[in-house]
Design brief:
By secondary structure, the chain is mostly beta strands. It has one domain. About 0% of the residues lie in helices and about 45% in strands. The chain has no helices and 7 strands. It has a 4-stranded antiparallel beta sheet, with no helix packed on it. A 3-stranded antiparallel beta sheet has the order 4-3-6, with no helix packed on it. It starts with 16 loop residues before the first strand and ends with a strand.
């Protein structure tokens, strides 16, 4: 039985998919992320759903619980980034 079948999607989670992110200065994510998961820590430069551009330093295996529309290539040193989404 799939416990997600009759469950309404909510930004409170859980996410329904984790999509790999290729940082790009000009292209938004295909789905707005409700959070990012980062395998290898470093700096992540993002555009938030509020419209700001932010630079955040995260550790290995971090979850950044923030609505994100874009992950920039310029300035991003973290790797293994995944967008947690409600697909």
């Amino acid at each position: 039985m799939n416990p997600f079948t009759d469950r309404a999607r909510s930004i409170n989670g859980p996410a329904t998919d984790a999509l790999p992110v290729t940082p790009d200065d000009a292209t938004d994510l295909t789905h707005v992320a409700i959070a990012l998961y980062v395998e290898t820590g470093g700096t992540v430069v993002i555009d938030t759903v509020a419209g700001g551009t932010r630079s955040v330093t995260v550790a290995d295996f971090s979850i950044l619980p923030l609505g994100v529309t874009r992950v920039h290539a310029t300035g991003t040193t973290a790797a293994g980034i995944h967008a947690l989404v409600l697909a």
